[in-house]
Amino acid sequence: MMLCYNANTKQIQRLKAPHLPQDHEVCWLHFTEQTKEMLQDLLEKLSIHPLAKKALLNGSDFPKVDQYEKCAFVSIFIVNDQFQKTQLRIIATERYVISFTEREIELAKKLFVHLQHHPDHLSHPGYILYEFLNSAAMEYLELVDYIARHIQALEKQVFKTPFANEIGHLVFRWKVRLHELRQIAEAQEEVMKTIGHSNFPYVNEESNPYIQDAIARFARVTSALDTFRETLTGIFDLQLSLKSDHMNVIMKTLTLVSVVFIPMTFIAGLYGMNFEKMPELKWKYGYLYALLLMASLGIGIALYFKKKGWWGERSKHQK
Asked: In 162, 178, 202, 318, which residue has its Cα 20 to 30 A from 210's Cα atom?
């Protein structure tokens, strides 16, 4: 995808082969892995710093911007909802912008169509940089919305199935993803601030406000990622709290049941002693008396617990 803007005619020309712009022209040349040989041939003809050429072909591990004598190298990352990262490498000069991605991306296709309908957006390299940065920011904001929906679903799942071990696994996986994404987003925000600085040579006064708008939009991304990490920590703590509460209820129930049966055990043990002179053993209704006594004590203790709210309190709150 190659476009060239003519400042005299205010028109855009679609190029079939790489074209070095004249004094009144500004060109955008986009290459992919399939057209890499064409890019290499073009770079051999350009008088730009060798490190800039090497960076454009090999890329970098993180977003960055390097300024050289006649050009600037910019590397930004685009992440889709599958968390697949695509590196967009850019060389910006006063008359042309060269971009490269290893595979075709929708961002470049949309920009190609957009520039043909808005020729003035290709009148200066600063506008092209803005279009890249703004489109990348919008992609990140869509990813933020995607993450927000999944984290909200995870919060609801905690209350539906608080004892599911899968929740803890999901929280861990999301925190790993957010950590990696946060590192990229932080570096990319610094790149955008560098480009938006007044000393950056390839952004003019007219295009700088647009760059600042893209920076402000992208700032929401880093802020949202920090919020998501705190929310995930809260979800994990909430699940631990619910599990602990459930365990306390179980222990409380077992304790109350054992307390109810302690007097019965005492009575059974008392009359189970093998002494010869125990008057109650010869009573006609001694057995019935012992059963009634144990039942009365058990019911009495249970009613006392009920009155204090120690028994049945949970089910009452649930209703």
From this structure: 178
